[in-house]
Amino acid sequence: MTTDGTDGTDGLTSRLETARLVCSNPIFFKNFIVALVVGTILNVINSGDVIFEDGKEVVAWKICLTYITPFLVSSFGSFNGLRSDKVNTV
User: pLDDT averaged over consecutive 10-residue blocks of the chain (90 residues)?
Assistant: First the structure.
């Protein structure tokens, strides 16, 4: 361990390792499930009238973005949680 409290490894390397962990099957699957549940709830709240009524045009990019956003937020939370665990165990 160095005097600044780090283990002397490159910060980018540890970030890449953490990013690989976030993209691993169990964590990726959990983030996907979170995005599916939260995205569906948000779509029903925000676009329910457009989705369930005939004759109204559904804006596909808004619906996709409503699923992508919770996935990214959940992935970012997993990334930060793994990084802080790694820092605290060193």
Answer: 49 73 83 95 90 82 94 88 69
